[in-house]
Amino acid sequence: EENFPKPDLVIIDGGKGQLSSVKEVFDEFSPKLVFHAAAHKHVPLMEDSPNEAVKNNALGTLKTARAAGDFGVKKLTVVVTHYKEPMTVYKPLFETIQMQTAVDLTEVEVIVVQDGNDGGVPLSFLEQFTYETRLILMSKGGVSKARNKGLDEAKGEYVMFVDADDALSPDALSLLSALTVEKPDIVIGGFNIYQGEIPYRTVIPYDSEFYPSAGLSEFFDATMHRLGELFRGPWAKLYRSSVIKKHSLRFNENLSYAEDKLFVYQFMNKISSAAAVDAPVYEYFRRPGTLSGGK
């Protein structure tokens, strides 16, 4: 009571023997520490009801442990959408993920969604990196469909979108992850813009800061109102997966223009906290004839 006089307490009634309800709690609240104390303690009673004792104490404990493991293994999912980009274009992206500083790459999963079967990313290429990669092939359906497929497959507490013809800044994941301690619904970073291979300009938030619910107006003023370009695309951001799932947020597959900006604004409309990083975390390339060329 002295250290935590007003805890943010949420009480949920659900049997731990039912794995689906346990996973729902882990998915929504993403606990960092689990105290498992629920068990039948009345020994004489349990001696007369051994089936219930095993179901609650043994199987319930097993399912709780498994849920904790499932939701604690992956903290970040990077969804890479790829469409016909040659290896000379997409190779730097995967190399910059490998070179991330101060990040445990075992806690990062990279999902590569191949939009169409032409000019795909070879499995042999992906297998050379130490982080976990999954290659998903789909018939050509557009970048929105590819990103939605990545969302369906993502296991991370946070999701990041990357186009195969762009790259991450060397310390992108460490800078963004450092702001997730308070569990914000979104973390926004800056980015460098290139015309071809030539640096054009840099766009970054004003401060590195966490904004609770009461400070969201300040967050929007520091990012959206004065630096609206930060929201031009879905990249250079961490999105909390539980928010996406809770509100069934998707990229609109019927739109061919500004569908990514629409997703960002729809997500922003659902957040209750946010964070910003006043540094570039993403390398955004405008290349004629590639995914970034028309953006």
* Helix-and-strand structural type: alpha/beta
The total count of strands amounts to 10
Q: Give the rounded overall mean pLDDT.
A: 80
N-end to C-end Cα span: 53 Å
Shape: globular
Query: Any low-confidence stretches, pLDDT <50, length ≥5?
Result: none
Strand content: 15-25%
As a percent range, the share of helical residues equals 25-40%
Sheet with most strands: 10 strands, mixed
Rg on CA atoms, Å = 22 Å
Q: Tell me the number of helical segments per DSSP (H or I, 4 or more residues long).
A: 10
Task: Give me some keywords for this one.
295 residues; single chain; alpha/beta; 10 helices; 34% helix; ten-stranded mixed β-sheet
